[in-house]
Amino acid sequence: MAEIKQVAVPDIGDYKDVSIIEVMVKAGDKINVEDNLITLETDKAAMDVPSPYSGTVKELKVKTGDKVSQGSVILLLESSAASNQTKNGQTNQPAHQATADVSAPPTIAENLPAKQAPILPKATPSIGIKAHASPAIRRFARELGVQIANVKGSGEKGRVTKDDVQVFVKSALAQSGVGTAGGNGLQVLAMPVVDFAKFGTVETKPLSRIKKLSGANLHRNWVSIPHVTQFDEADITEMEAFRKELGKEYVKQNIKITPLAFMLKAVVIALQKFPEFNASLDASSENLVLKKYFHIGVAVDTPDGLMVPVLRDVDKKGIVQLAKELGEISARARDKKISATDMQGGCFSISSLGGIGGTAFTPIINAPELAILGVSRAIIKPMHQDDTFVARLMLPLSLSYDHRVIDGAAAARFIVFLSQVLADTRRLAL
Ligand code: CAO
To answer: What domain count does the chain have?
Structure first.
């Protein structure tokens, strides 16, 4: 026959008026003997209070933040006669001691069954990084293979809650791609958690939404694609002379003709000659999907972070048209007027830092594309020609490619051909 029982705070030693920092049950919950009900925290340690009975919670008498002592009623439980006592015959369990404020390996207290757990909480020396969490949450984290010290707590005083552990696991799964077609299950050491303020003044600034989104993509691409970067220099002396002439003609129409418009055109000519660069792996990673269109992504630096809008059908457009579209799309990106569709469908990307400087860099492939071209600042260099040195304007190129699909020799052929096209602007018209 069902009966209503009072569940009270057990013997917690000399502690009085101890704060409840977590309530783990609510009215209507069905609980078993030894399920944890609340977590108490003294200035030294945290401890869980388990249920001495099984049954259904009828009414909660406490809430987070309340102060309780031995004998304070926690809740009323409707319990069946058969389940009135704990396995060892006790009518009320001692509190389970938490490993105080440390992320040390599980303590003896945590490993012992409840009936053997010490009654009095004791301070454990503080070693390692602090992580506040109740024994139940620590146990839950351990079962999932999560190191509690790596979980950011959202509870009171930064306590790690069950939700925090679940969010941590979900985000770890999402980052590793486990369960997805591109899953790689990478296991890496956790980043060290450093208190930077210990070494000097610091300021914390949240990352922008764009940085968070692009950061996650860059990270996935960097760890899951075997990148190799091939470098070359293109002689753009003639191209530059032509660009300047053309630029003057279009100033009035407010079209700025930069080297990038020429790069777009030259890249498409190279992609037409080397179709495996204008392709993606399918979801099984066993087939190459060769694209018959030529949409090129262009990395644009915006105050909020990197965006890669896509210019469509570059093969069907001339240099002036491309320069115009480039100006428009980069202005839209900087004004935050780029939509998700503007960034989809790219076959290959170009990242130009030529307007800023630098000699070379290793761009990260914008998956599922297979290659990306980095462009650095052109400089005049002495080049050896016909037994003499002549001043030529040399443009540094960095081609990162997916080595699962593209061989080094193919990449070298691609970049050499691209350099030839840029060196002889007549080829752009072919
Ligand atoms: N060598 C020498 N000069 C160059 C050059 C190069 N490779 N590329 C551009 N320039 C010159 C331009 O001609 C222009 O000169 P003037 O002002 O005298 O006419 C100046 O540098 C500035 O060019 P720009 O940067 O405004 O224009 P762009 O077409 O070259 O680039 C855009 C447009 C949107 C790509 C660029 O503004 C940008 O955002 N670049 C950053 C991309 C980025 O962050 N990439 C890193 C991603 S991490 O992989």
So the answer is: 3
Query: 313-343 pLDDT, tens per residue?
Result: 999 999 999 999 999 999 999 998 998 899 9
CA of 294 to the centre of ligand 1 (A): 22
Range of the domain at 67: 2-98
Q: Which residues are catalytic?
A: 403
Q: Looking at the structure, do residues 119 and 13 belong to the same domain, yes or no?
A: no
Ligand 1 pocket check for 363: Cβ under 6 Å: yes
353 by DSSP, 3-state: which?
coil
Of 42 and 342, which is predicted with more confidence? 342
What is d(CA 279, CA 371) in angstroms, rounded to the nearest whole number?
9
Task: Summarize the confidence of residues 136-145 as an average pLDDT.
Answer: 79
3-state DSSP assignment of residue 324:
helix
How remote is the CA of residue 355 from the centroid of ligand 1, in Å?
3
- Give the global pTM: 0.64
pLDDT, tens digit, for every residue of 13-24?
878 888 888 888
* 213 in any annotated domain: no
Domain boundary among 171, 205, 239: 205
| 210, containing H or E segment | helix 209-224
Q: Whose CA is nearest to atom 38 of ligand 1?
A: 300
3-state SS assignment for residue 198: helix
